[in-house]
Model the fold of this input.
Amino acid sequence: MPETHIVHRKLDIGVQKVPKQDAEERVRNWDETYLGFDLNSAKIEAERCIQCPSAPCQEACPVSNDIPGAFALVEEGDIIGAADKFRETSNLPEMCGRLCPQESLCEGACVVGFAIRSDGRAEPPVTIGKLEAFVTDYQRREVGGYPRGPDPGGVFTSDAAGGSSGGDGGGGGGII
Done:
């Protein structure tokens, strides 16, 4: 299939809505308002990324996250790999996915949000922040604990082998 057809097919994928708590429920707890993606919705939302060669989303990101690279991994089902991809340039992607003003940075630069679909409608950009939060939450649930900080060579690693997550002083630069 020619590349243009792939882009048009991806542009026709509708934005995946992120469920949120009902207002009456959320005023009675401290849980997040947005409940996050499930695995299937995350894969579909990541598939909306058209893998721009110039990656304006990555250029707009203050830490230069490889957003297209991470989303290609999500699309392939490698959620842990996608979380590790975000960790290559950010030590707290869990927080960035929730607190960074994506709408004026990466999502604001996302070409998908500017494109007109084959039926003439416009769609919002890929929900980059929600996907970043999803993959890192998924990694924490599946692998356990928080990732360790960088080793002296600057490489971030998941705590897949057990051991300290750094919060107890047993690792280099963990979350305290």
In short: The radius of gyration is 17 Å.
